[in-house]
Design a protein that fits this description.
It is built from 17 helices and ten strands. By secondary structure, the chain is of the alpha/beta class. The protein has two domains: 212 residues, Periplasmic binding protein-like II (D-Maltodextrin-Binding Protein, domain 2); 99 residues, D-Maltodextrin-Binding Protein, domain 2 (3-Layer(aba) Sandwich), CATH 3.40.190. It has a five-stranded mixed beta sheet with strand order 2-1-3-10-4, with helices on both faces. It has a five-stranded mixed beta sheet with strand order 7-6-8-5-9. Strand 6, helix 7 and strand 7 form a beta-alpha-beta unit. Helix 12 crosses helix 17. Belongs to the bacterial solute-binding protein SsuA/TauA family. Keywords: Signal.
């Protein structure tokens, strides 16, 4: 992420930061929320369910969804008042805290509770062991990204020294990784869905393990907003969180086919059977949080992952960067 750029924004935009979100909540029945998601991904299915099933509308909210295509871009949009709420990894708020932000960006609702990537091999492997990656190459993500930090954390946990025992290919853009692997680059590929299922259908790759299984629970993808916006708009944040909880309940009880049917409009290029496969794999991997509460154990686990990756200069204080009050109330709403 371009954290130097964000750092400059933090240092030069103090007056702007102080002024954002200071007005009263709109009196209109429908309140507009500008929501910026980090990427478009089936991983975020409960969010699309909340929109498509009308759960936001039931709360009197009109959600304007945009895709930023980058965690740094989401945070810049939040800090510059181009978005009200962001959907991105909680580690971004720690990075902003490390940059000395004059105002915290606060995590208020969790969407995913585990890493959503799968290690894809070129052949089917019935009993995969991480030692099989020694001397091999893995198409991975850039340094400092949560997928890469989790991958290296899981490798160490399983007796592999990443980048010493193997090669991690990090010079391929996210959009081109699947095509690169399919054409022969790398022995393994750390893939999000639907890439893993598409490769499997094509017979060009086979998911062998969920990285979220070994990484444990952590606030992988969360909804966040500036502290000033939350304090000025508590009713709006509560309604937003209520809708997310209802969507989480729905997804938890739905079949993979039902999930695929609802989110299909967001993935027009993905075949329906692939969406069903992805929903099934994600449900089995327990990646979707069942409630929006970000607990402290998950927060500390994220710190451990970041620390091992050498990306944690200053721990992010849980009591300053996490607000569970809205999620706790939403969990009680039937």
């Amino acid at each position: 992420m371009k954290w130097k750029t964000i750092g400059s924004l933090l240092l030069t935009g103090a007056l702007l930061l102080a002024s954002v979100g200071c007005g009263a909540e709109p009196a209109a029945e429908k309140t507009k929320i500008r929501l910026s998601e980090v990427i478009r991904s089936v991983f975020y299915a409960p969010q699309y369910v909340a929109i498509e099933k009308g759960f936001f509308k039931e709360q009197g909210l009109e959600v304007e969804l945009t895709t930023a295509w980058g965690g740094d871009k989401v945070m810049t949009a939040i800090l510059s008042n181009q978005a009200d709420v962001g959907l991105v990894g909680a580690e971004t708020t720690v990075f902003v805290h490390q940059q000395g932000s004059p105002e915290p960006v606060v995590n208020f609702a969790q969407l995913t509770q585990r890493d959503g990537t799968f290690l894809v091999a070129r052949q089917k492997i019935e009993n995969f062991d991480w030692s099989m990656t020694k001397g091999k190459s893995i198409v991975g993500s850039r340094n400092g990204s949560m997928p890469e930090m989790v991958s290296e954390f899981v490798q160490r946990k399983n007796g592999v020294n990443p980048k010493a025992d193997n090669q991690i290919i990090q010079n391929i853009s996210f959009d081109n990784q699947t095509a690169a692997f399919a054409s022969g680059t790398g022995d393994f590929y750390q893939a999000f869905e639907p890439a893993a299922s598409i490769l499997e259908k094509q017979g060009k790759g086979y998911p062998v393990i969920s990285l979220g299984k070994d990484s444990g629970k952590l606030p992988y993808t969360v909804f966040l907003a500036k502290d000033s916006f939350i304090k000025a708009n508590p009713n709006t944040i509560q309604k937003f969180t209520n809708a997310i909880q209802k969507a989480q309940n729905w997804v938890h009880n739905a079949t993979p086919q039902e999930v695929a049917d609802v989110i299909a409009p967001y993935f027009p290029q993905v075949e329906k059977d692939i969406l069903v496969s992805v929903a099934d794999r994600y449900k089995k991997a327990d990646v979707w949080a069942k409630d929006p509460i970000i607990d402290q154990e998950e927060w500390e686990n994220m710190h451990t992952v970041m620390r091992q990756a050498g990306e944690l200069k200053t721990p992010g204080p849980y009591d300053k960067l996490v607000n569970t009050s809205f999620a706790e109330k939403a969990k009680q709403v039937k």
